[in-house]
Amino acid sequence: MSVPRGVIWDLGNVLIDWQPHAAVAAGLGEEEATRFMDAEDFDFLAFNHVLDGGVTWEENVAELRRTHPHWVEHATAYRANFPASLVGEIPGTVGVVRELHDAGVPMFGLTNWPDEFWPHAPRRFAFLELLDDIVVSGTEGFAKPDPAIFEIAVARAGIPASDLVFVDDKQDNVVAAIEFGLDGILFTGADELRHQLRDRGLPV
Question: Which sign does the torsion angle of CA 167, 38, 60, 114 carry?
Fold first, then answer.
C-alpha cells in the first residue's frame, strides 16, 4: 500500500473539543442545559445537522418555534453563547497535525459546521492555519455523510481520493468516506490515531 499523500481532518471532537451543553449552560444554567440536551421530544444534534447542511438559523428556528416552541429559548441560548461550546483544542490530535505539517504533509479540513457560526473557529484556533484548505458544510450546502461534500473536499484538495486519509469521530461519516474512495479512520483517541497513521507510513 502506498503512503497517503494527504490527510483530511474532521474538526469537532477530533481537533476541537465541541460541547454544546456548555453554550446553553452559559445562558440558562446547567440544569436547563441538561434538560434541553436530554429532551425526549427534541433532538438537538438533528436540529444542528440541519444548520450544518446550509439552512439558516432564522429558517431553522422558525420551524422550531412551530414544532417545539418551549425549546426556542434554549436554542437561542446556544446560538448566543456559541463560543462557550468551543472548549479548546484536543492536544493529542493537534500535536499530530503539527508534526505532519512540519513534515510537509498536505492537510485539509472537512467539517459539519453552520456557516454563520464558522468565523468563531479561525479566530479562536490558530492551528487551523496549518491546514491548506477547510471545507465548511454550512457554506457549501451539503453535510457529511452526503457524498457531495466529499466530492467538494477532494476536488479542492487536488489529490485523488485514493491518496487521502480521512479522520472523523462518526462511523457514518467514515463509512461514507470509504464508499467515496477515501481511506477512512474512525477517531477514538489520539494515541490510536497516531498508530494508524504510522502504519500507513505517515511521519508521526
Answer: negative
pLDDT in tens, 25-59: 999 999 999 999 999 999 999 999 999 999 999 99
Please indicate, yes or no, if residue 1 is contained in any of the structural domains.
Answer: no
Q: How far apart are CA 131 and CA 75, in angstroms?
A: 31
Q: Are residues 45 and 127 in the same domain?
A: no
Residues 78 and 104 occupy one common structural domain: no
User: What domain range includes position 47?
Assistant: 20-85
Whether the pTM exceeds 0.70: the reply is yes
Residue 204 belongs to a domain: no
